[in-house]
UniProtKB/TrEMBL annotation:
Belongs to the cytochrome P450 family. It comes from Cherax quadricarinatus (Australian red claw crayfish). This is Cytochrome P450. The keyword Transmembrane helix applies. The chain crosses the membrane at residues 42-63, 70-92.
Length: 424
């Protein structure tokens, strides 16, 4: 027996030796140590990773500190897994467009849900947490059908305009009473999302009938997961953005006034803005983009390396969690005129023309960019431009200020008074 000789040693000596052996085993064999040629970062201990260094701190604070101390490729460990935070916009673009970075790591929310949906048989279901060929086929199917329905295009515009008009009529009926804006927006979004999801569900069910008896992605487990994903991905993101849109514009009366002046000059007050008016409304368009830049709903998008790869000269092992630092790209002083303030000038040139900034990435970038982006862009534009054409808003009570340290930002919870704007 290999350890027989230990039996001949006095009791305390064998305990110390056993302890030493276990310690060495932990140091050299247990997962979680810094891999060779891995980007710089927090100390990574076996098993616990960097938990001792980040414990108790809010996520956005951890990420900002990490970038400040270790730069644009900064690493840490969470239990046995290496994590890489990518913060420079050019690197973000390069790395998150690469096919090796398109996986998602296991996420407790989707993994648990998937096991529950499939009686414990499947962890890889749906689009948000899905991986591999199945995810790719499903994503293509979702994108194709959203496009065919006209989401993000003029065919679905009347549906959004109808919901916005109903919301504005409801606001008008409040006759100057304080309105809890979040509730109004949530109602609007759930009606909207039901329409989108309902149309998509009927297409998926038809596809399931075509594939009866075959092994394909068109089965009941995928159906439930993908419908769930569409709701989960579309609801909170859009409703928080719209709630914050009204809040930020109302909080800056000079900006609110300029938006309204432009809407009056270009459209008057008799007809509602349509998506095709966006190019003729540069200040309004810039303000709406600024809402999403400044609010920055998602701090980081989470991916993982599907194979061993090399980025910026570093070796990144398969399974490394890759964090796309959306917040860093959208506040980089090299890329924005006034990154720390709410300022539509961030999207305007000296002639007052709207200019695209490629570092505007609230929907992510690359292989896994938001599947609902065209739809969301249209919703945000129509909602905010219609509301500010018809009302002037003032904030009258704030229960919770906007300030979220977590990955998904929480909007301010507030009440507003809407002053109707009479016809010109
Ligand atoms: C203002 C609104 C929205 C924002 C800010 C937003 C943002 C995001 C972000 C940052 C991601 C992660 C991208 C990545 O991992 O690289 C994402 C993914 C996703 N979003 Fe959105 N989103 C919004 C609205 C929507 C809507 C309305 C839908 C559906 C109709 C939707 C469906 C999805 C789906 C399915 C994914 C997962 C894509 C994949 O993993 O392949 N999103 N979104």
């Amino acid at each position: 027996m290999a350890l027989e000789w230990m039996g001949k040693m006095p009791g305390w000596e064998s305990i110390v030796l056993l302890g030493l052996l276990l310690f060495l085993l932990l140091i050299f064999v247990a997962p979680g140590r810094r891999p060779p040629n891995f980007p710089p970062g927090l100390p990574m201990w076996p098993v616990i990773g960097s938990m001792l260094h980040i414990q108790g701190l809010p996520l956005r604070t951890v990420l900002r500190n990490l970038r400040k101390e270790y730069g644009n490729m900064a690493s840490f460990g969470v239990f046995g897994t290496g994590v890489l935070l990518v913060s420079d916009f050019s690197l973000i673009k390069e790395i998150f467009s690469h096919k090796a970075s398109r996986d998602r790591p296991p996420m407790s929310f989707t993994t648990t849900r998937n096991y529950l949906l499939s009686d414990g048989q499947e962890s890889n279901l749906g689009i948000i947490g899905g991986n591999g060929d199945k995810w790719q086929e499903l994503r293509r199917f979702v994108l194709r059908h959203l496009r065919d329905f006209g989401f993000g295009k003029t065919t679905c515009e009347p549906m959004i305009t109808k919901e916005v008009t109903e919301l504005m009529d409801h606001i008008q009926q409040q006759k100057g009473q304080p309105i809890p804006m979040m509730e109004e927006v949530d109602n609007f979004i759930s009606n909207e999302d039901c329409d989108v999801t309902h149309s998509f569900a009927s297409i998926f069910l038809k596809e399931m009938q075509r594939h009866v008896g075959e092994k394909s992605i068109f089965n009941m487990h995928e159906f439930t997961a993908v419908i769930f994903d569409m709701f989960a991905a579309g609801m909170d993101t859009t409703s928080s953005t719209l709630t914050m849109g009204v809040y930020l514009i109302a909080k800056h009366p000079a900006i609110q006034q300029k938006v309204q002046q432009e809407l009056d000059e270009v459209l008057g007050r008799d007809r509602l803005p349509s998506y095709s008016d966006a190019d003729a409304l540069p200040y309004t368009l810039a303000t709406i983009h600024e809402v999403q830049r400044y609010f920055c709903f998602t701090a980081v998008a989470t991916h993982s390396a599907s194979e061993d790869c090399k980025f910026a000269g570093y070796d990144i092992p398969k399974g490394t969690v890759l964090l796309e630092n959306i917040e860093a790209a959208m506040t980089d002083p090299k890329l924005w005129k006034n990154p720390q303030e709410f300022d539509p000038e961030n999207f305007l040139n000296a002639d007052g023309k709207y200019v695209k900034n490629p570092a505007f990435i609230p929907y992510g970038i690359g292989t896994r960019v938001c599947a609902g982006e065209p739809q969301a862009r249209m919703q945000v534009f129509l909602f905010l431009s219609c509301l500010f054409q018809r009302f002037t808003f003032s904030i009258v009570g704030e229960e919770i200020l906007f300030n979220s340290p977590t990955n998904f930002n929480a909007p301010a919870i507030y009440s507003t008074v809407a002053h109707p704007r009479p016809p010109l």
